Amino acid sequence: MTDRARLLLYCIADAAAALPSGGHGGGSGLLRIVHGGLAAVASPLAEPGRVEAPAKAELLEYERVIRAQHAVADVLPMRFGSVLSGEAAVRAHLDEQRETYQRALTRVAGCVELGVRALLSAPPPPTEPETAVKPMRLSGAAWLEARRRHYSAESRLRDRCVALEQALVAKVAPLCREHRTEFPPPRPGEPALCSLYFLVPREQVLAFRAAVSSIPVESQTDIALSGPWPPFNFVA
Q: Looking at domain 111-234, does it have CATH number 3.40.30.10?
């Protein structure tokens, strides 16, 4: 098959979903491929380089298409770069993943994703630089103490992330279906980003926002609420 037969997938929905028709995705008209009770939204991929090295505008357009579909129906958003070689391959993919997609659609039915990001200030740096000094130039006791300080600071940041998660969940538990938390290992001396994602019924979005805004936040924490978004973090 030629590259022009390749299709870029945007999202998966129930076949009965009233998805918007027309519009454009990546410069080509959208296709709605219905098969086995599911519908895949895709567009022809004329230039393979789009996937390998996408421009920012193309990523934003990809997200815009998914958000437009999600505005009117429950969808499972795909990651940019999900490409199949034509409509037959899309139908085969829907056959192969039918049970997975149907379970995921049940999971996110009627919901949007809201995100809470908290920037936790770093503890004061140790008096002696750790990264600039190689372990072999420190005594064993000094090196162990340096590592203890490093992990103690990381542990304090992690404890603050857990405390924030608990405070949020205590407030919004009746307003969300589920949540997940990301806390990448912080770098020494730098603020740490704690990201929480909530699967919220569409009708509870305003109440969820109000609940989050009422949570007391310590002065060393910057917190921001984003969304609603398609449920990117709840489709696996």
A: no
> 150 with 130: CB under 8 angstroms?
yes
Q: What is the pLDDT of residues 183-232, one digit of tens each?
A: 877 666 677 888 999 999 999 999 999 998 887 766 456 788 999 999 99
Burial class (CB in 10 A: 0-12, 13-18, 19+), 189: middle
Own/partner pairs, 94-101, CB within 8 angstroms, 24+ separation = 94/12, 94/33, 94/35, 94/36, 94/38, 94/40, 95/35, 95/36, 98/36, 98/37, 98/38, 101/12, 101/38, 101/76
Q: How far apart are CA 111 and CA 107, in angstroms?
A: 9
* Pairing outcome for strands 75-77 and 7-14: antiparallel
Q: List the chain domain ranges.
A: 3-108, 111-234
In three-state secondary structure terms, 192 is strand
For residues 153 and 137, what is the distance between their CA atoms, to the nearest angstrom? 23
Rounded to two decimals, what is the model's pTM?
0.77
